[in-house]
Amino acid sequence: MITAAETCDFINEVVCKPANVKELFEFANFGSSQISRTEILILLAALIPVALMYFGLRKKSTVPGKLQSVVESIFSFVKDEIAVGVIGRGGEKFTPYLISIFMFVLVGNLFEVTPLVNFPVTSRMALPLFLSLLTYVIFLVVGVQKQGIGYFTHLIWPPGVPVALKPLVGVIELVSVLLVRPFSLAVRLFANLVAGHVMLSLLLASAYFFIVQPGGVEYLIARAPIGAAWFTLGLAIYGFELIVSILQAYIFTLLSAVYIQTSLHPEH
User: Fold this and answer.
1) 26-53 burial, b for 16+ CB within 10 Å, e for fewer?
2) pLDDT tens-digit map of 18-58
3) According to DSSP H, which parts of 13-125 are helical?
4) 33 pairs with which residues across the strands?
5) pTM of the entire predicted model
6) Is residue 189 a contact partner of residue 127, using CB atoms and an 8 Å limit?
7) 2 with 22: CB under 8 angstroms?
8) In angstroms, how far is CA 261 from the centroid of its own chain?
9) DSSP letters for 75-90
10) Minimal CB count within 10 Å: which of 147, 189, 253, 260?
11) Which residues contact 266 (CB under 8 A, 6 or more apart)?
């Protein structure tokens, strides 16, 4: 991993790093506490969707402007295609949660490809895990409200399964629903964003160092084509990561709706 430092000896040091890596994440003191870059970006990821929804929907006009059109399209998509389309009857009441989680994850993901930011907050495991636990609590509460204690007994002793297989299937269902679901939901988002972030960082940083590293004209002529190739590949990955950022926000929201649907309509 190549990191930035104020002073760096490119000739004698292969990897340049600050004396304390915490410098890469911390801002100056605000009062008596350290405010990290991640904390500020998480706050922005929460405030930007609120601002978009407020300014996009506060004054609905017959001929909507660009912002209103975009916000209404996102809202309608999440409500019709995910909340109602996936959950079915009663799904509309989960629209506020699903639109909130979709917009938050989307903005947090898009920080990866935002100039001067280039850091997706969802690449910190604590955040995807927290979001997945929110979904976990919701589908457990919905399951208990809908089915009572039968929600858990049906997991342990699933109906419609041959008696000889019920113990095995019950253990698989219990582990899958109560343990694997929240973990897999978090890891899927985390792993995809970390992989893309690391790939972009390595490609673009390598291109930069190949081109700007001192050493004379002959070294520059030899290294410049390699740096240009890395930079071109980095730009291609940049466009790919833009698609991944949007897709992962959709997948996280979709799976949240699927899990809620299995608790709300177990017959399906």
Assistant:
1) eeeeeeeeeeeebeebbebbeebbeebb
2) 565 555 555 554 555 567 788 889 999 999 999 998 888 88
3) 37-57, 66-76, 95-110
4) 30
5) 0.82
6) no
7) no
8) 22
9) HHIIIIIIIIIII-TT
10) 147
11) 143, 146, 147, 151, 154
